[in-house]
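Input sequence (353 aa), recorded before submission:
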Amino acid sequence: MTNLDDRVPTVLTRRGRVLLALGIVAFFLGGLALGGYLYLRSIGVYGEGVPGDLVSVEIPKGSTVGDIGRILESSGVVPSAFGFRVVAYLEGGAEDIQAGKYELPQGLSARAALEALLQEVPAPDFVTVTFPEGSWLTDFARILERDSHISGDRFLSLTATAQLRSDLLPDGIDTLEGLLFPSTYQVIDKDTPRTIAQRLLGQMEEEVAALDQSAIEDLGISPYEAIIVASMIEAEAKIPEERPMVAAVVYNRLEQGIALGIDATVLYALGEHKETLTASDLEIDSPYNTREVVGLPPTPIGAPGRASLQAAFEPADGEWLYYVLEDCEGHHHFSESYDEFLQYKRAYQALDC
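Predicted structure, token format:
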């Protein structure tokens, strides 16, 4: 028979019960801590993340931290919008995030995403605007109004009254017609009519400065007058190799005091883009009517491109005084005599273009 005093005690001492309770509490607290850590890691608060493909993310103006978090989560940049809010609260600085477009990798931790947004400068929004060669100031304004946020009326008011000056612009001329270089430009949100006009004017100044000035100096022609010639070449010549020949005709006629007779200047005087001119159109009383007025028109009649500028500054060597269309593709016959000109003109009129 076993002695009761020799049995293992089944009732814990007071100290033992306290230790057991503490152990159970520690176990549960440890479990909660581990679970909390794993949860915070799953929402990107902890851990490094695994950066993946770049995505474009746009942060609109006035976005809250919650808005930014939701944008990042929906783009796959962070695993959780809530996690981003937690990190933004703990780290601070979210108020310094700029609105705009960012290129960010997917799979970032919330902390890495916050750092990226604070360190990177957002790419500016822009639209691409193309101004064709030969454009008038009114065309520039219309295209800007149509394709960007720039007010066409404000742009036209600024440029048509030459509120911006240029070394190319002579005294007494109060319009920038022909001095804005036609090309393709990016217009950003911060652009204004003035910044756009300055950019186009500056580009024309660079284009002209890069040209050989010796030929026009020998002719006694100023750079501005050469731009006037280039604007007429732009309107008249569509075949590249003919542009320097058209320039030669203009300079030869100027030297001999013969009216230029360029119909494109009459169109400019009328203020209309149209295909044909009537007899009454050709009689318009205007300094731009080069059928009636000898010499250059007062200003360019449009914005010449690079090829027309080069032709005006580097004309061909020839004695031609006339040119007339040769075919339906835009080629011209060039001649020194009026009789030859009339012969070529009759041949063209016989075509069915």
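Checked by second reader. Strands lie at 54-59, 100-105, 126-130, 184-188, 322-325, 332-335.
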